[in-house]
């Protein structure tokens, strides 16, 4: 462990010395052991990366996992890289003749976000 930061909201960030150490904790069994050693009520949130894609056709359905997997395949991203997809502007505020919009993606892989 390189550093531990405690925040006023009760959150804690643990920074590891190496990427391998962080990857070790991403393993489900290792993560469960780590949580039990800290506090069984602890939850670990993976770091995420935001990406905005402009001019996406409105035929794209953010709730359709098949559309999300297709987008990952088209961009050569690993499956389940997209953890969340939502339109920047709420659909209720769109112009009726609008055909494209900007999409916010939350990704779990920094390489994909670049």
Give a concise summary.
With 114 residues, the chain is α+β, with helices and mostly antiparallel strands.
Please, could you describe this protein's structure?
The chain is an alpha+beta fold and 114 residues long. It is 29% helix and 27% strand. It is built from four helices and five strands, in the order ββααβαββα. 6% of the residues are buried.
Task: List the main descriptive attributes of the protein structure presented here.
single chain, 114 residues, alpha+beta, three-stranded antiparallel sheet, two-stranded antiparallel ribbon, 4 helices, 5 strands, 27% strand, elongated
Fold blueprint:
Layout: E1 3-6, E2 12-15, H1 19-26, H2 28-38, E3 49-57, H3 65-74, E4 82-87, E5 100-107, H4 110-113
Antiparallel strand pairs: 1-2, 3-5, 4-5
Radius of gyration: 18 Å
Output the number of helix runs. 4
Strands side by side in the biggest sheet: 3-5-4
Unreliable stretches, pLDDT < 50, 5 or more residues? none
Helix content: 25-40%
Distance between the termini: 26 Å
Principal-axis shape equals: elongated
**Mean pLDDT over all positions:** 91
Oligomer: single chain
């Amino acid at each position: 462990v390189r550093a531990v930061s405690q925040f006023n909201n009760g959150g804690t960030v643990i920074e590891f010395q190496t990427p391998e150490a962080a990857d070790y904790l991403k393993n489900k069994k290792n993560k469960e052991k780590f949580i039990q050693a800290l506090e069984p009520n602890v939850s670990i949130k993976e770091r995420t990366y935001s990406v905005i894609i402009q001019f996406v056709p409105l035929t794209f359905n953010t709730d359709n996992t098949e559309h999300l997997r297709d987008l990952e395949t088209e961009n050569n991203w690993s499956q389940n890289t997209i953890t969340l997809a939502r339109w920047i502007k709420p659909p209720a505020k769109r112009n009726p003749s609008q055909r494209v919009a900007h999409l916010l993606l939350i990704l779990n892989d920094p390489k994909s976000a670049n």
